[in-house]
Amino acid sequence: MGNYANVNGIKLYYEIHGQGRPLILLHGGLGAIEMFGPNLPALAKGRQVIAVDLQAHGRTADIDRPLRTELMAEDIAALIKHLKLDRPDIMGYSLGGGVALFIAIRHPELVGRLVVVSTPFRRNAFYPDILSQQGQVGAEAAEAMKQTPMYQLYASLAPRPEDWPRLLQKIGDSMAEDFDLSNEIRGIKATVLVVAGDADIFPPAHAVELFGLLGGGKRDGGWDGSGRPKSRLAILPGVTHYAMGSDPALAATVIPFLDEETETDRESRAATAQPVGATR
């Protein structure tokens, strides 16, 4: 079911699928909810999925502000409060993964488990050819990019399809900015699953580095598993960045992680929980 929420100065489109523990689902850049394909119903079989179209994407119209992950994170934080959700899990892919990281960094009291999919935490982690391609994204590329599936999806959903050049300019400007979230990620308290493809837009080693910042990869897990880190890492074989959102391997990897709740999770919830109302 589709809805709009007026939060944080934006009219944010979201859909609710399934029942159970809530999961906020955030798509990638130049995409929309639909880019998760069969993974959305798979996830919704065991939980309540709240899938969102981010600023200037899908059915959510653009507003007069830059397209920045930290600003979109405030939109989602406001949506969580608007829906009176109690520490929902959050799953973000690519751009959506950056948004998810900022929510966990800035609003730890609002987050249950976190799934970060195909998301670099430093700009220089992208392969050089990807950085070169990003440098070509802007309003002047709008006509040529009308031949892409990204535009076809955008044109079929956007309240103002004529905003396509504006979206490309904003996302191009955003991608040109340097970033490095290493220090902030070290402070994340949530239990995190890091997912990347072995054919992603950055080397698998970068996902391993993110896992390391979250406390993973420091020691043997032990015969009884007691030495395992609280966070997890998954490198999906043969999966590219562009196929990741709809590849069935994604849901198959994520669902067991979301279904597991450890003592660490319970302690984290107790330590940072603030009353934000009952789960819808």
Summary keywords:
280 residues, disordered C terminus, 11 helices, eight-stranded mixed sheet, 8 strands, Rossmann fold, alpha/beta
Q: How would you characterize the overall build of this protein?
A:
- There is one protein chain.
- With 280 residues, this protein is an alpha/beta fold.
- The chain has a single domain (2-272), classed as Alpha/Beta hydrolase fold, catalytic domain (Rossmann fold, 3-Layer(aba) Sandwich), CATH 3.40.50.1820.
- The chain is 36% helix and 18% strand.
- The chain contains 11 helices and 8 strands.
- An 8-stranded mixed sheet has the order 1-2-4-3-5-6-7-8, sandwiched between helices.
- The longest helix is centred in the N-terminal third of the chain and has 14 residues, at 69-82.
- It is globular and about 60 Å long.
- It starts with a strand and ends in an 8-residue tail after the last helix.
Q: What is the straight-line distance between the termini?
A: 14 Å
The name CATH uses for the topology is Rossmann fold
What's the total count of β strands? 8
Identify the strand order in the major beta sheet: 1-2-4-3-5-6-7-8
H and E order: EEEHEHEHEHHHHEHEHHH
Bulk shape: globular
| CATH architecture name | 3-Layer(aba) Sandwich
Summed up, what is this model?
By secondary structure, this protein is of the alpha/beta class. It is built from 11 helices and 8 strands.
